[in-house]
Amino acid sequence: MSRTARPHLPVRPIWLCRVCGHTWPCGAARLSLLAEYREDRTAC
Ligand SMILES: [Zn+2]
């Protein structure tokens, strides 16, 4: 299994994920955004 290191970032100005092609934020992008948010703010 090869790890895809490509981040799920939006292609502007159409805001589609450059990896999935789904409307951004896609599922993976949301997860990464949530992870970053939790790292910044440890509040519940
Ligand atoms: Zn994606």
Annotation keywords:
2 strands; alpha+beta; binds zinc ion; Flavin reductase; two-stranded antiparallel sheet; flat; 44 residues
Verbal overview:
The protein is of the alpha+beta class. The chain is built from 1 helix and 2 strands, in the order E-E-H. The radius of gyration is 12 Å and the shape is flat. The protein is about 30% helix and about 10% strand. Strand 1 (about 10) and strand 2 form a beta hairpin. The chain has one helix at about 25-40; strands spanning about 10, 15. Strands 1-2 form a two-stranded antiparallel sheet. The longest helix is centred in the last third of the chain and has 14 residues, at about 25-40. The protein has a domain at about 10-40. The structure holds zinc ion. Zinc ion binds next to helix 1. Zinc ion binds near residues 17 and 29. This is Flavin reductase. It comes from Micromonospora olivasterospora.
